[in-house]
Amino acid sequence: MFIFHKETTLEDLGGGVTRRILAHDGKMMQVEVNFEQGAIGPMHNHPHEQLTYVLSGEFEFTIGDEKHVVRAGDTLYKKPDIMHGCVCLKAGTLLDTFTPMRMDFLK
What we know:
This protein has one helix and eight strands; from the N terminus they run ββββββββα. The protein has one helix spanning about 105; strands spanning about 10-15, 15-25, 30-35, 40-45, 50-65, 65-70, 75-80, 85-100.
């Protein structure tokens, strides 16, 4: 399956955050998330495993009780149901991979 960036839809989540759903099937999903400087990814949890790859920018991430600043090339793992969130320190883009896929993102 091929997913062409120009054929995907950019969804405005508000507060300086946009999301673009990329490839997905029943077992996994990839999502591009763009943040303006100062934008917040509020603390939340979900039953999915999640990998986040920092494509660009700088973010202060909290996962569970750990907090670290991450930059382009860094990867984060979030186990199911763990609380996590971020603050964007320098505008950037994250690439999230979920398993299973996030049905709630498809509306």
